[in-house]
Specification:
278 residues; alpha/beta; Rossmann fold; seven-stranded mixed beta sheet; five-stranded antiparallel beta sheet; 9 helices; 12 strands; 27% helix; binds S-adenosylmethionine
């Protein structure tokens, strides 16, 4: 169940009959920065991890996929300069809104730019490049992943570090029957208060290693108000991830199963990687 973290999908309606299991799913998922912040307000452990790395590096930091600034703002508040890049306008607008509320000294340390990490080419180098919270799972093909690593190589200082995290593929979730509905109970619409029946469908393309979670919101009385929101994520298996890093010019400094250095186990949620140029 991913329900508690999904309220931000409410405004991103996809008519149920038109919803497809495609990569565009990730766009629908990031169309409301306010709900993104609400949904992930309790996620702090990774913020501490990335802020500590930023302090160790002395900055400036480049954050790829900065979202609503959840991590970048904490780094700026800690006294480190950060440049954040994000393609989704609603996420960036929310980040700017939050930035405006910071004291001048902190907000002056944070620069936000619109764009995809795949094409980013700044004329600057950084001692730390980060891509927190599953950003890399939105690079769906080998070519996209390679362009992502090329961007990191382009911006990293010689002895710089690249840190990011992605989910550990969950064999139970990936093996789910795509037509099976996983019911999640009733949820209130955050704006008009009407109650929807919430369920999820999971489908996995084992060849492309892409999982799509289709979040289905069924209005009890009015079918025209029912909608789905897809979330599409590329799965990275640990040995594959290390091979990709190796063949794209990186050396793995650490590859752990959480933000405190635990080993990767079956129950691991996030794989956390720190890599350097080799
Ligand atoms: C789960 S959010 C993480 C946001 C932020 N790093 C955080 O920790 O809250 C994933 C972000 O990656 C962004 N993203 C997806 N594809 C991207 C790309 N090609 N270049 C840069 N960012 C991308 C999404 O728009 C979204 O904001």
């Amino acid at each position: 169940m991913v329900l508690p973290s999904l309220l931000h999908t409410w405004r991103t309606k996809v008519p149920r009959r038109k919803a497809t299991h495609s990569a565009t799913g990730s766009e629908a998922h990031y169309e409301d920065g306010r709900y993104y912040d609400q949904a992930y307000r309790r996620r702090r452990h990774d913020v501490r991890f990335y802020t500590n790395l930023a302090l160790e590096s002395g900055g400036p930091v480049l954050e790829l996929g900065v979202g609503t600034g959840r991590v970048a703002l904490a780094i700026g508040k800690a006294g480190i300069d950060v440049v954040g890049v994000e393609p989704m306008a609603p996420m960036l607008a929310r980040a700017r809104e939050r930035l405006d509320k910071l004291p001048g000294a902190a907000s002056n340390r944070i620069e936000l730019r619109k764009g995809s990490l795949e094409r980013l080419r700044l004329r600057r180098k950084f001692p730390l490049v980060i891509a927190p919270f599953n950003v890399w799972m939105h690079l769906y093909t080998r070519e996209e992943v390679e362009r992502g690593f090329a961007t990191v190589r382009h911006h990293l200082e010689k002895r710089g570090r690249f840190a990011f995290d992605v989910l550990l593929p969950d064999p139970v979730s990936l093996a789910r029957e795509p037509t099976k509905r996983y019911r999640g109970g009733e949820v209130p619409h955050p704006r008009d208060g009407s109650r929807y029946r919430y369920s999820e469908y999971f489908s996995y393309d084992p060849s492309a290693q892409i999982e799509t979670v289709m979040m289905d919101f069924e209005h009890p009385d009015d079918e025209s108000r029912s909608f789905c929101t897809p979330l599409t994520q590329r799965q990275f298996f640990p040995a594959e991830l290390e091979a990709l890093l190796h063949y794209n010019g990186f050396k793995v400094e650490s590859h752990t199963g959480d933000f405190k250095g635990a080993a990767i186990r079956t129950a691991t949620e996030s794989q956390v990687v720190i890599a350097t140029l080799r």
